[in-house]
Amino acid sequence: MPTLKEMLNEQVREGARELFEKIDERNRVRCYSCGHCCPIPDGQAGVCKVRFNRGGTLYVPWGYVGGVQCDPIEKKPFFHAHPGALAYSFGMLGCDLHCSYCQNWVTSQALRDADAVSPPLAASAETLVRDARRQGARVLVSTYNEPLITSEWAVEIFKHAREAGLMTGFVSNGNGTPQVLNYIRPWIDLYKVDLKSFDDRHYRQLGGRIQPILDTIRALHGMGFWLEIVTLVIAGFNDSDDELQRAAEFLAGISPDIPWHLTAFHQDYKMTDPANTTPEMLMRAAEIGKHAGLRYVYAGNLPGKVGDLENTRCHNCHELLIERYGYLITGYHLTANGCCPKCGASIPGRWGRAFEGQITSHPFLPRGRGLIAIN
Ligand code: SF4
């Protein structure tokens, strides 16, 4: 029986030329697919464990998924992109960070944590797109692990998705580089960044640095991706007024129109000490965000307990525009051209001409999709 590492080492192809270069005569390469920019000796893998150097060429994941799920787009979360749409979501294996509270650790920490066992499923881009359409998806999303580290495979799938008329998205930690953002830009519409903290020391605990993430957020907005930001609020880790305020001021300084989702932590994986986040904590954080000038601040993971913070209101006249309960859309009042029906203000986002209904407000596994476990 091959090991997971042996299986994944077969599911590869050469990395995109834009995303690595040879840096010396000993065949070392440097990878630019994430902010680590790993120098990788011949025969070794990068920090993510899934991109490796063989003979001076970088090999990268290809032709499989770690899992597939149909999610409401609100779960990603995107609140300003086709509310109610079904987001056909696929994950790969591996990550460039190692967050102790990861809710997707079984796939993200594969190859790093012996308890994270998730068999890869063979998939082609055509199969995934065909299945996404069959399930009624409007959007195809790379998520559950860090999509930047598997950008080549995501771009291959997204080229087919575009041909089929689907939108595309990344749900990412934002640890990018200019090279990888340029590489993915033509093929991605929506981008969510998980801004985990506003303190470099905290990022180093998770295996990263804050600066590449801040640079990526700024670049994503400047390059015209539709960008939403999430911060999982964790007591004692990132919830001080000072830290939340600096994060909010940073985002508002880029654009007050960037939606900021403040979501509730629950104990998971190796982080079982902090208490679960309360509605009061999210509401306090939301006040800080609004006070900093952000126009669209949301509280998530606690349906029905955070007052008006699940809804979208016009930034100009406060008219109620989109009503939500958890992932369920309960009211939609935008005009056909994405404006407030009362004052006419243009609402930032990617809107359809009308609400197109909602297939589900709960995640479900697609059936009969023909993916098979690799072994
Ligand atoms: S994706 Fe990031 S962690 Fe993986 S090899 Fe490239 S630079 Fe290193």
Descriptive report:
By secondary structure, this protein is α/β, with parallel strands linked by helices. The chain contains nine helices and 20 strands. The strands form five sheets. An eight-stranded mixed beta sheet has the order 8-9-11-12-13-14-15-16. The protein has a three-stranded antiparallel beta sheet with strand order 1-6-5. A three-stranded antiparallel beta sheet has the order 2-3-4, with no helix packed on it. Helix 8 (241-254) packs across helix 9. The longest helix has 14 residues, at 210-223. The mean pLDDT is 92. Iron/sulfur cluster is lined by residues 31, 33-34, 36-38, 46-48, 51, 96, 149.
Question: Concise description?
Answer:
The chain is an alpha/beta fold. It is built from nine helices and 20 strands.
Question: In terms of topology, how is this protein built?
Answer:
Layout: H1 4-10, E1 12-14, E2 20-22, E3 29-31, E4 39-40, E5 52-54, E6 57-61, E7 64-65, E8 67-72, E9 86-91, H2 105-108, E10 121-122, H3 125-134, E11 139-142, H4 151-163, E12 167-172, H5 178-184, E13 190-194, H6 200-205, H7 210-223, E14 226-233, H8 241-254, E15 260-264, H9 279-291, E16 297-300, E17 312-313, E18 320-325, E19 328-332, E20 372-373
Helix pairs in contact: 3-4, 8-9
Iron/sulfur cluster binds next to loops.
What distinguishing features does this structure have?
alpha/beta, three-stranded antiparallel sheet, 9 helices, 20 strands, 23% helix, 22% strand, binds iron/sulfur cluster
